[in-house]
Amino acid sequence: MTLHDDLKTRCALAVLVFLGVSALAPPTVQAARSKNDHQFTLGGVIGLSKLTINPLSAAVSKEKFKEHYGVLARYKRRGQGGIFTGVDVSGSTGSGRLTLNAMLAPATAAQETYNTLRTTTFKTFWNADIQGRIGREFNTGIGSFSPYAAFGAAFISAKVQGERLSVSGGERRMIESTGGFNSTKTFIGWKASFGLDYDITEQIQLFVQGEYADYGEQSFGSVSPEVGDLNIELDSLGGRAGVLFKY
């Protein structure tokens, strides 16, 4: 055996001994701390939110808070002094349905006949968001409380569906139906949230959160040459709560 082969053998044995001792040795305080500094949670949420469509001339039946259900995944990293940062990723079912005004009249509607929409429904299918989060932990005798704030990107899918009509501009009366109107778009905007976590056990966490989202504007296409494009600005105000399990 050459000197080189002998050195390789000794190094291999040293690595095996090190791995064996590491496996049998108790974890160090630093290792335990490092593990506790990083936390993953996953759970279900239920929320209430109210959609607002702008401009109001393009909307709205009476706005109401609607429930929605979804899932939330979190990553959390603890820092010094109880401060923590993290990332939230969530998705949920559609959060509402609104009936648009029966008549979406053109700005220059005179006595002439023009095309418009009636019985038009605005419906959301799903919404999702990804947010950065920062907060502080407060450990008490009845558990750990963690107020936080979050901000990030928000997405919502919505459809406008209605009936095209030929209408007399002066009398605002229907002349005839000219077919259906159906358009689906995905809004992309931002969301700001604030909330509170409560650790009831080492494995289970409750949370409650208030949030506001501005989804920006989308064009759902041309209603008719007379009316032009149906442009909708969308925002949402609401809150949600849920149960999360730590991993």
Describe the protein in words:
The two termini are 50 Å apart. This protein has two helices and ten strands; from the N terminus they run H-H-E-E-E-E-E-E-E-E-E-E. The protein has helices at residues 3-24, 29-36; strands at 38-54, 66-78, 83-93, 97-99, 113-136, 138-140, 143-168, 173-199, 204-224, 228-246. Strands 1-2-3-5-7-8-9-10 form an eight-stranded antiparallel β-barrel. The model is unreliable at 14-33, 56-60 and 105-109 (pLDDT under 50). The chain has 247 residues and is mainly beta.
> What's the arrangement of strands in the largest beta sheet?
1-2-3-5-7-8-9-10
Number of helices: 2
Number of strands: 10
Biggest sheet descriptor = 8 strands, antiparallel, barrel
Spans of at least 5 consecutive residues whose pLDDT stays below 50 are 14-33, 56-60, 105-109
Shape: elongated
Average of per-residue pLDDT values? 75
Q: What is the share of helical residues?
A: 10-25%
The Cα radius of gyration reads 28 Å
Helical/strand content category: mainly beta
Order of SSEs: HHEEEEEEEEEE
Distance between the termini: 50 Å
Q: Approximately how much beta-strand content do the residues carry?
A: over 45%
